[in-house]
Structure to design on (423 residues):
């Protein structure tokens, strides 16, 4: 069992990352993929990785790898990583806890001189958040083979800039995009440390959550086209109001999700644009994103099918034109028992109570699960708040999760293909 994480070092790094913020004049942190501040945050973590003695590389979609080389580097490595990009007006812990936690775990292992056969890799996955380009897990999704270079040409941000244009601007397209792809066997195991982003652990008074399964998202981009008209002189029975139509769809999504009556069947419309967005003009067009999640793929497909049928029906009844595209339709994943066992073993040795749970949020581990065994370690979120400036987890709670992560990575790095410990 390894020792203690260095809470000062970790807190300083989390605080440094907090300052890479595109909108310091607003509440919280906004650090979208490939914004100047995100590029600076990437450089900062790479510099900390080098200082920690890791070998640092980056791939064609911007995933960053910091490798603590093992005694048998030819063996499939053990991974641990997360993200540094944020939603708008975010807190300072979503994603960064997993990146700094993985870095600190590597330092703990290196400073302990504990022998480890497999290399251990701390990673930053490119753009876990869908904030800029409307789809999440861009870096890990590419690793799993679900995002081709061609497809990056059709992912646009609100300014009409494509992901491909950004990759070109930053010189990534000069490298071999295909090399990003990972196949089964390339990675022995992957463990991600993350804040819980809900209040289960806090309510239970439990410091460590072990994620047994991760819910998956389906994203649907919807455009409703009606008729822009005068708000005063257009009689109610002559309107083709894209805002009123959208409101029916929003409430239908909510009632569909509620009807399943469980915490993991959820539907959200968080991004909504109305045109021309003027107080005295009937909206001629609305554009919005539907985010459906579930741990059960058949339920998610049923929700998707029902809401799309409802959109068609509203459009027909209101004489509007509806266009929609499913832009992401991911599969839920389950964690690998040997990794769960390794995390559990560390918590037992450290006399830390655990709670096994499902993650309602998705994470890069969802994509990594397509080519490697995964599991996640959760640490509590105060009040369950996340994706909000008030997001908070104490450095002591983060250190506890990091210490368990470090034990787990070390034991996995000395495990053979049968899951037996070998020095
Ligand atoms: O939306 C999510 O579950 C993650 O925070 N991107
Ligand atoms: Mn997030
Ligand atoms: Mn996250």
């Amino acid at each position: 069992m390894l020792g203690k994480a260095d809470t000062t070092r970790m807190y300083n790094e989390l605080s440094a990352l907090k300052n890479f913020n595109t909108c310091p004049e607003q509440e919280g942190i906004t650090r979208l993929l490939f914004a100047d501040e995100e590029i600076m945050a990437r450089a900062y973590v790479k510099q900390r990785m080098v200082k920690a003695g890791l070998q640092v590389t980056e791939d064609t979609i911007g995933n960053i790898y910091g490798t603590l080389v093992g005694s048998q580097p030819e063996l499939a490595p053990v991974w641990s990583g997360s993200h540094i990009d944020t939603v708008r007006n975010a807190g300072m812990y979503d994603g960064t806890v997993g990146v700094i936690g993985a870095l600190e775990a590597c330092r703990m292992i290196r400073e302990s001189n504990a022998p480890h056969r497999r290399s251990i890799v701390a990673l930053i996955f490119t753009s876990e958040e869908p904030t800029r380009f409307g789809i999440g897990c861009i870096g890990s999704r590419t690793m799993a083979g679900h995002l081709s270079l061609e497809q990056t040409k059709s992912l646009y941000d609100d300014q009409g800039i494509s992901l491909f244009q950004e990759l070109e601007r930053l010189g990534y397209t000069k490298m071999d995009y295909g090399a990003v792809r990972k196949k089964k066997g390339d990675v022995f195991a992957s463990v991600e440390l993350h804040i819980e982003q809900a209040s289960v652990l806090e309510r239970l008074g439990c410091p460590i959550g072990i994620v047994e399964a991760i819910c998956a998202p389906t994203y649907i981009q919807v455009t409703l086209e009606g008729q822009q008209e005068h708000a005063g002189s257009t009689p109610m029975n002559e309107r083709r109001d894209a805002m009123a139509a959208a409101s029916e769809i929003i409430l239908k999504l909510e009632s569909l999700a509620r009807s399943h009556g469980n915490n993991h069947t959820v539907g959200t419309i968080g991004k909504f644009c109305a045109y021309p967005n003027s107080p005295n003009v009937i909206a001629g067009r609305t554009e919005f994103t539907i985010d459906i999640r579930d741990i059960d793929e058949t339920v998610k497909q049923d929700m998707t099918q029902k809401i799309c049928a409802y959109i068609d029906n509203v459009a027909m009844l209101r004489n509007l034109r509806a266009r929609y595209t499913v832009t992401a339709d991911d599969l839920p994943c389950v964690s690998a028992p040997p990794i769960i066992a390794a995390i559990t073993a560390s918590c037992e040795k450290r006399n830390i109570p655990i709670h096994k749970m499902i993650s309602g949020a998705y994470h890069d581990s969802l994509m990594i699960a397509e080519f490697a065994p995964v599991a996640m370690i959760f640490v509590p979120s105060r009040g369950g708040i996340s994706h909000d400036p008030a997001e908070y987890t104490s450095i002591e709670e983060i250190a506890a999760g990091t210490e368990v992560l470090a034990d787990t990575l070390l034991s996995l790095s000395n495990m053979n293909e049968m899951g037996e410990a070998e020095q």
User: Anything to note?
Assistant: Residues 184 and 371 are 4 Å apart (CA to CA). Residues 128-129, 136, 361-362 surround (2S)-amino(hydroxy)ethanoic acid (ligand 1) (CB under 6 Å). The radius of gyration is 23 Å.
